[in-house]
Amino acid sequence: MPTSTQTFNPRRLVGIHAERVTDVSSTDYPGHYPGEDHSWSLDKFRENLTVKVQRLSQRSIDFDIVGVDASIANAFRRIMIAEVPTVCIESVYVWDNTSVIVDEVLAHRIGLVPLNIDPSLIAMKSGPHDTPTDRNTIIFKIDITCSRNPSAPKGSTEPRELYINSELLSSHLVWAPAGEQDEVFAGKPPAPTNPNIVLAKLRPGQSISMELHAVKGVGKDHAKFSPVATASYRILPHIKIKQPIPPEHAEKFQKCFSPGVIKIDPRTKQVSVDEVNVRNDTVSREVLRHPEFADKVELSRVRDYFLFNVESEGPYTPERLLPEAIKVMREKLAVIKKSAEALRDRATDGDVVMAE
Amino acid sequence: MSSETPDKLKILKSSPDLSAATYQIHDESHTIGNSLRWMLMKNPKVEFCGYSVPHPSENVINVRIQMYDNLSSLDALITALDDLDKLCETVEDQYLESLRAQEYETWDEKS
């Protein structure tokens, strides 16, 4: 009665053993298996590909991409983290800062605040010395002074009751529209996504006055530009029970896996793998530590079955992140293709240009 | 070329017929390097393909392509770029289709 959830072609499995992993690399290349054709075919790819959204919330998304190579899945993940643009505060002009936080530390903190600005509405500055315009820069202002609260309750020790403006919060950033920005951002005025971030604490007499310039950038330049909190994937765990597990060991067997992964038939005490919940297994290999189970089970992961989890932090809704990443990837490919074709045109003219 | 805007693509070392060549791609990393390498290796006319990031503080990757039958590695590179683009398009289409089908669980996440 060897049971497993789904059956996968053994070539798709990465072996998970007590002390090692095996068959890590994919083998579906032309020439790897004699007499088999593994050359690229879009039709075959389309046939094998499954993309399915599993869970969605306001801040995160879980989706599966099945049938792509790790290099492709990894490219999407890397682009979501480092190359999908967002808008963040990049320059801070301090007119006055008498708080206990020094200018550069406060400026750094302000830079990290996620903003709700749709990056497609503004242009990227070509460099740090490019002139700021209403097309590429969004200005915020901070003007805040802390003072005593004359109507504070007697005997109170709470700073927020004793003083007015005892904290500089992200909600104190005031957008200063320039040029045509009033119309462009009419639907959604630029502001921090979270109004409750404490940026500095103030006491009576201290004040902060600053001008903040937000620009468009990418995560590879500075992590504050990354549109995601996390973007990660796991590959699908696969558990094969090769020999029946004795009923008296059923519960112990179940406890070797993450909750919900192993089902026990209430009547026969027969164990089986839950087809839907296998994905939640951590593949801890605990089961292989027990000699009574070690030969009865085979652990593996499916090499081309990617379970993505992406948490959005910033202006993009979570379901928009993958399409944005794919857009960036295709733009990159188009740029390289253009220069490759230019190179080919020059080469056919008879001058192969070799650098160095 | 001026030193301000380096070429996106340079040929470093190659045979005169371009059947074996190393391409240096400026401002790219493992993201493009590894996926391009994979797509080139899916081409049966490619004898060898590999890529490297020569140094972490240099913003370039080197892609080495060697072809069978003295074919042009530049043609293979362009084909691979085209195929990768179609792959991306296919993944996006299926993703958007799955999103439209709305067969997913929605839940409320507190921020």
TrEMBL record, chain A:
Molecular-function annotations in GO: DNA-directed RNA polymerase activity; protein dimerization activity
GO cellular component, one term: nuclear DNA-directed RNA polymerase complex
Residue span(s) of domain DNA-directed RNA polymerase RpoA/D/Rpb3-type: 60-339
Alphabetical list of InterPro entries matching this protein: DNA-dir_RNA_pol_insert, DNA-dir_RNA_pol_RpoA/D/Rpb3, RBP11-like, RNAP_Rpo3/Rpb3/RPAC1, RNAPI/III_AC40, RNApol_insert_sf, Rpo3/RPB3_RNA_Pol_subunit
Signal peptide region: none
Primary subcellular site in the record, as a coarse category: nucleus
Listed GO biological process terms: DNA-templated transcription
Keyword list, A-Z: DNA-directed RNA polymerase, Nucleus, Transcription
Location in or out of the cell: Nucleus
PANTHER family per the UniProt record, alphabetical: DNA-DIRECTED RNA POLYMERASE, DNA-DIRECTED RNA POLYMERASES I AND III SUBUNIT RPAC1
Family indicated by similarity: Belongs to the archaeal Rpo3/eukaryotic RPB3 RNA polymerase subunit family.
UniProt protein name: DNA-directed RNA polymerases I and III subunit RPAC1
UniProt organism field: Panaeolus cyanescens
Automatic annotation (TrEMBL), chain B:
Sample GO molecular function, one term: protein dimerization activity
GO cellular component: nuclear DNA-directed RNA polymerase complex; RNA polymerase I complex; RNA polymerase III complex
Keywords carried by this UniProt record: DNA-directed RNA polymerase, Nucleus, Transcription
Highest taxon in the source lineage: Eukaryota
Single GO biological process annotation from the record: transcription by RNA polymerase III
DNA-directed RNA polymerase RBP11-like dimerisation domain residues: 20-94
Entry keyword annotation includes Transferase: no
Pfam family, one: RNA_pol_L_2
Subcellular location field: Nucleus
Similarity comment: family membership: Belongs to the archaeal Rpo11/eukaryotic RPB11/RPC19 RNA polymerase subunit family.
The name this protein goes by in its record: DNA-directed RNA polymerases I and III subunit RPAC2
Organism this protein belongs to: Panaeolus cyanescens
